[in-house]
Design a protein that fits this description.
This protein is an alpha/beta fold. It contains four helices and nine strands; from the N terminus they run βαβαβββαββββα. The chain has one domain: Rossmann fold. Helix 1 packs across helix 2.
């Protein structure tokens, strides 16, 4: 889906498909350089990370493995509580592995902070994070992110995996949702 297909729903275009792909190539080169000779296990966090996972995996010029987790934050409404429930766990054994968590966005940071500790406790050699987007003004906990794409304003963004009520995930770029859509 293009921006023009839903232009009345969008307030501002933040990142085009081209800008995202250029950044993912950059991140892939950095990841390759840091993992020479060691196979990386990419862990995608469903569902938002599907697009970034698909593009990052293909941008990498080395063999990787992929696995997926689905998690849900306990708590009322849209506020992340930091207490996370595993809806779908990994199939892989992490012992001795170099794990790279692949995320679409870091908002409060609570999900990733919990997830990283959880994966570290399973005996991985390293657990690092690659996130395409981060909202510095929304962070509630510091998250040590090794590979970050873009810092963005604390606004409601959709596209490239990010949804509003399960819509707009298939938008090619990232845009700020117009308030009339959710008000
Ligand atoms: C989003 C995103 C992260 C999390 C970040 O997922 O993909 O997993 O929120 O928020 P936090 O930093 O405040 O913890 P969401 O729960 O919306 O599920 P989805 O990926 O299925 O859209």
């Amino acid at each position: 889906m293009e921006f023009s297909d839903v232009e009345n729903d969008l307030a501002e275009i933040l990142l085009t498909e081209e800008e995202i792909h250029a950044k993912i190539e950059e991140l892939a080169r950095a990841i390759e350089a840091d993992h020479q000779g060691e196979k990386i296990l990419l862990v995608g966090v469903l569902r938002g990370a599907v697009m970034v996972m698909a593009d990052l995996a293909r941008a990498l010029k080395v063999d990787i493995e992929m696995d997926w987790m689905a998690v849900s934050s306990y708590g009322a409404g849209t506020q992340s509580s930091g207490v996370v429930r595993i809806l779908k766990d990994l199939d892989s054994d992490l012992t001795g592995r170099r794990v790279l968590i692949v995320e679409d966005i870091i908002d409060s940071g609570l999900t990733l902070s919990w997830l990283r500790a959880n994966l570290e406790s399973r005996g991985a050699k390293t657990v690092e994070i690659c996130a395409l987007l981060r909202k510095p003004d929304a962070l509630k906990v510091e998250v040590d992110v090794t590979y970050i794409g873009f810092d963005i304003p604390n606004k409601f963004v959709v596209g490239y995996g990010l949804d509003y009520a399960e819509q707009y995930r298939n938008l090619r770029g990232v845009a700020v949702l117009a308030p009339h859509v959710y008000e």
